[in-house]
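Input/output pair, single chain:
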Amino acid sequence: MDAESVQREIAEFHRGKKWIMVPDAAAGATALVDQLREWEPAGIMVVAAVEGVGDLPKADRIRYTRATGDTVMLGMRANHAAIENPDRDLLAAVADFDPDHEALVLGPGFSRASTLVGRPVYGARAKEWWALEDKTIVDQLWDDAGVRRAPSAVVPVAEAPAAAADLSSDLGTVWVADNSEGWHGGGEYARWVRSADDIAPALAWFAEHAVEVRVMPFLDGIPCSIHGFVTRDGVAVFRPIEMVILRDAVRPEFVYAQAANYWEPPAAVRQAMRAAARSVGRLLSDRYGYLGGFGIDGVCTVDGFLPTELNPRLSIGHGLHSRAADMPLGAMERMQTEGDLEIDAAALEETLLTAATNSRRGGLLLPLTGEHAPNKAGVRFVDGRAVAVDPEDECDATMEIGGAVMGSIIIVRLDPARTPTGPSIAPRAVAIFALARDLWNLDIPEMATAPDVCAGA
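Output:
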């Protein structure tokens, strides 16, 4: 399976059709619009909540819902509501672009709807697959797939303190909500309970947002993930990815800052992670008829890799592999789901493994509440310290701040040629965000990194 032949087949399918994209931020669709343009569509419309950070897509039409929220999840849910139940003005704008109702929607990664902005979603995922997002059911899946895990308990919210007393590690426990309020991610529905002082606020928060919680020991080590892709003939498994999850240096809070594949776990850990993904992928295929991308998040601890959650969808790790190999996994997944493309799992695995090994990449982001003026700076590291430079000069990274569905966001683009392979990039993330705080006078807390205690490190 080579990228050129896959691109030809995908281009032929997309040619001459009208497509509608519905990202939260319009700038987030720029690369996909550029790719779609190469496939010669009949037209492209983008419906987004806000402009976002970076260049806007060269679409035939761009329409904004202006649906936002105070947090990442609330912002995403507001925009999903706007495109799942479009108002009269939005429907009129879509009708002006697509009067004959020929357009298909390339759905957002997190919407469960099969119809958006009044048009069918191409490659819509089965409800049974989305149900696997619930963080309270995943431990049974690990057990059924034969994947080693940490102990856990799923209990009513009021019983979480007793469960935590039994399961606490030296650093406490982590509680995560069920899906009473729908899908959630980015650690927004998780709480780190370090001591008795943290119990009351955690109980109060979960009592408003969940019926049950899963309680686990806090796992110390590098947060990481492993990604796979289920086809009709097998399971392709890719390289481990570092999840850049930082810690508030004072409060028991996590800071999700995206992902990169510069980090190298010990060989034995890498093999164990890939074996876990293959077992889980086979179970998903056999039990649910699952197709497409999935990821397993976890932590590389002193006892090796231990999983924490399943993401039954394409995620950031797939994007890193996809761009490295110039293989559009999103289009491939949608076409496979609809029966318009057959994918050889073994060939896909070999292609993406080779590409991701030879082409390291990744970036950082930091959501912020409130609106902040757009700005951009270059970053250069001097003796481990991040220093601001002209973004047009030679630099190790660039950081840019702009609007987002929750208010504002900082997006950091790392230069692959100037980012070391092997160690965690989390220390660089901490240094960059500290620079942003001082340079742009932002309310960003002091952050700390997880220790690299991986077995064999």
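The mean pLDDT is 94. The domain at 151-217 is CATH 3.30.1490 (Dna Ligase; domain 1).
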